[in-house]
Amino acid sequence: MANEEDDPILQEVEVHFLGSLHEVCFLFQYPIRPASMTYDDVTHLSAKIKPKQQKVELEMAIDTLNPNYCRSKGEQIALNVDGTCTDETSTYSSKLMDKQTFCSSQAASNVSRYAAAVYKKGELHLTPLHGILQLRPSFTYLDKADAKHREREAATEGGDSSQDEAEDDVKQITVRFSRPETEQARQRRVQSYEFLQKRQAEEQWVHLHYYGLKDSRSEHERQYLFSQAHGLAENTELIKSPSEYLMMLMPPSVEEENDKPVAPSNVLSMAQLRTLPLADQIKILMKNVKVMPFANLMSLLGSGTDSTAVLRCIQQVAMLVQGNWVVKSDVLYPKDTSSPHSGVPAEVLCRGRDFVMWKFTQDRWVVRKEVAAVTKLCPEDVKDFLEHMSVARINKGWEFMLPYDEDFVKKHPDIVQRQHMLWMGIQAKLEKVYSLLKEHLTPKKQEAQSAHPLLVSGEQRVNMAKAKVKQNYGQLEKEFQKQKAEMKSSDTSAKMDVSDVRIKEEPVSDEEPMEASACEAMNNGLVNGLHPEEDSTDSLNCHLPGGCMDRVAQELKAFVSSTFRKQFVLTLSELKRLFNLHLASLPPGHTLFSGISDKMLQDMVLDTGCKQILVPFPPQTAASPDELKVYALWEAGDTYDQHRQVLLELFSKNYRVRRNVIQNQLSQECGEDLNKQEVDRVLKDCCVSYGGMWYLKGTVQS
Question: Is residue 187 part of a domain?
């Protein structure tokens, strides 16, 4: 009471609450402009609105005579947007940027507390606002300028494109049959961001007429901001009790979901996120991130969060893979949903994704073809699974995207053990569903548990190698003695059969161990099955039984022949790569592991009917010597031998050739009746297209 007496009322103001303009009263907030160019100086050319979205677009004229206006810049912008020609479609008909478009956005989601007030003659007149819109410059003219630039570039490149004919590739087409849409699926589609954006785009613009500040129509409408019932005693709006009147002045803060701005369903600010329960926070984070270390999760949840509670919640929505948490499949694919690619139900998708997650618990690498072969899912679904938790590596496969989290594994062994038991149960289910063989699963599991390449030091590797050598020494010694006995018992005639192989003639002592044994010769100097710089006979300079070298030559010849009948043209580098892949697919102890040199491989290529094509590479080429050696199958025994020979002769004179030159040469050498299919067949066998030119396979240098 004392405070009220010290603060007396100085004046009472009559308040009039108006509602006649409530549905059409908006507050526009314009951007700040230079003092010399106020909005009084700007003429509104046009205006339009989308009423349902409360979206407004205004077009205003710019005062080009103002000293602050840069005329050269305005001319440059107009030139970039419209080009040199002017027509009805031009944005700037005066060849000068003389207007600016402003687009609106909602400044507040709830405007029930805001009103437009006018104070006149001791009375305060309040009109509730229907919306508050912020006007910002629209730069759509820049998009138009970019489109013009692309059109000009396409026009300039049109001359060359007429001479370049793209190779017709046969593409696989997947046919899918749409299923009847369920009520839940329809509701999700209607609430999706794409549907809302489409519905907003479909709403038609309503064009408006702008009236200036001093226009008579503006003066008339402005009178509605004042109360017209000065002498009336009745005022139904204010016949309220004090509590009701106070409630009208200060309504309770109620969050209305319908008033929130439209945004994608997966967009949530950190401030909004931290208002949710801990379990919901973790679920939303994992659903969006999909793979996360525990330390990163704790940093996102904020300081003061109990790690024990987080561990309890994270196990409900994620599984432990290589010390990191990966969101569960049933969280990403809820019940009664289906694949957007193939329409496969969520149960099948969860099973396939669990298989991918389980594979990553066994190894850091997963092969996409293996997953597709086991799960029988379409390539798009398999790719989605792998992209959730791994990164593609060229010629290697898919690698788990995060390193092994050793810190978490050491700090929480109980969690690791519990997760291991869960994975054992999942593995048992996968074995039944996919009919997986245990002998295929056990080695990978042991390999994954025994070694983490990122965590083993160099000293540990050396110790492991020494232990393995000691363990296998006895077995290697027995094999060596057996091999030595076979050498002694071999007949001299068997040696004469291998006339092109030189065998070391060194005395073999029974007392002294032989240093250059067959097993040692297989390992020393062998790089991926190839001896890089040894003579072809020296590369086989180990004590092998008679007739073994014939088998090596036969196996090598079979590989070279089959490879060139598939590829027709190969560089030495590519041939060595394919040979190493072939070696990797062979069982241990195969005859080709005796060691094949580069020279022996090249000699075998020439012996199988291939020829070296001396391609005139440009002097500034950065290719390696192996990439500069190009070999081609000269005679395959089919009807296209002559065509390929003409093509190869053409590339012995030119590094790259246009298609029309190739077609003319083939027509001259092989006849005028050569059709497009025959030319395409020959080009597909030997060449690749890049930038409108044709190159021999493996010789393209970008």
Answer: no
Q: In terms of Cα–Cα distance, which of 30, 54, 57, 25 is closest to 42?
A: 30
By the 8 A CB rule, do 627 and 573 touch?
Answer: yes
Please say which residue of 375, 408, 434 terminates a domain.
434
E strand or H helix at 62: none
Picking from 410, 434, 458, the residue at the C-terminal end of a domain is 434
Confidence at residue 532, expressed as pLDDT on a 0 to 100 scale: 41
Q: Are strands 530-531 and 115-120 parallel, antiparallel or unpaired?
A: unpaired
* 647/585 same-domain check: yes
Altogether, the residues listed in the chain come to a count of: 702
Question: DSSP E strands: which ranges in 129-259?
Answer: 131-137, 206-208
The counts of H helices and E strands in the chain are: 29, 22
pTM above 0.70, yes or no: no
Tell me the two tokens of residue 568.
């027709």
Pair 105, 29: CB distance under 8 Å: no
Which of 551, 543, 550 shows the shortest CA–CA distance to 483? 543
pLDDT at 44: 64
Our CA angle for 185, 379, 429, nearest 5°, is: 80
What CA–CA distance (Å, rounded) separates 373 from 207? 59
List the Cα angle 463/466/470 in 5-degree steps.
Answer: 140
- Which residues in 550-579 are b (16+ Cβ under 10 Å) and which e? eebbebbeebbbebbeebbbbbbbbbbebb
Note whether residue 480 is domain-resident. Answer: no
pLDDT < 70 positions in the chain: 1-5, 33-45, 86, 88, 157-171, 178, 228-239, 252-268, 437-463, 465-466, 468-477, 484, 486-549, 589, 672, 701-702
Structural domain range at position 136: 12-62+98-149+195-228
Q: C-alpha dihedral over 453, 457, 461, 467, to 10 degrees?
A: -120
* Domain match, 288 and 363 both: yes
- Is the four-CA dihedral 688, 694, 700, 702 of positive or negative sign? negative
| Cα–Cα distance for residue pair 400/360, rounded to 1 Å | 7
Q: Is residue 38 part of a domain?
A: yes
Task: Report the C-alpha dihedral over residues 313, 315, 317, 318, rounded to 10 degrees.
Answer: 140
CA angle 461, 466, 470 (to 5 degrees): 150
Q: What is the pLDDT of residues 329-381, one digit of tens each?
A: 999 998 888 888 888 888 899 999 999 999 999 899 999 888 888 888 888 88
pLDDT of residue 319: 94
- Give CA separation, 425 vs 120, 354, 421, in Å: 79, 12, 6
Separation in Å, CA 157 to CA 152, 484, 581, 692: 9, 71, 42, 11
The answer to whether the beta carbons of residues 698 and 627 sit under 8 Å apart is: yes
| Coil/strand/helix, residue 632 | strand
**Cβ–Cβ under 8 Å, residues 129 and 111:** yes
DSSP 163: T
The answer to whether the beta carbons of residues 311 and 300 sit under 8 Å apart is: no
Whether 691 and 551 map to the same domain: the answer is yes
pLDDT of amino acid 547: 57
SS3 (DSSP) at 93:
coil
Residues 424 and 562 in one domain: no
d(CA 358, CA 469): 33
Q: Are residues 681 and 625 in the same domain?
A: yes
Distance of CA 274 to the CA centre of its chain: 30
Residues 283 and 427 in one domain: yes
Residue 104 falls inside a structural domain: yes
Q: In this predicted model, what pLDDT tens digit does every residue of 274-285 receive, in sequence order?
A: 788 888 889 988
Helix (H) or strand (E) holding 560: helix 548-567
Q: What tokens were used for 449? A: 């548990």
Q: What are phi and psi of 340, to 5 degrees?
A: -70, -15
3 state DSSP class of 393: strand
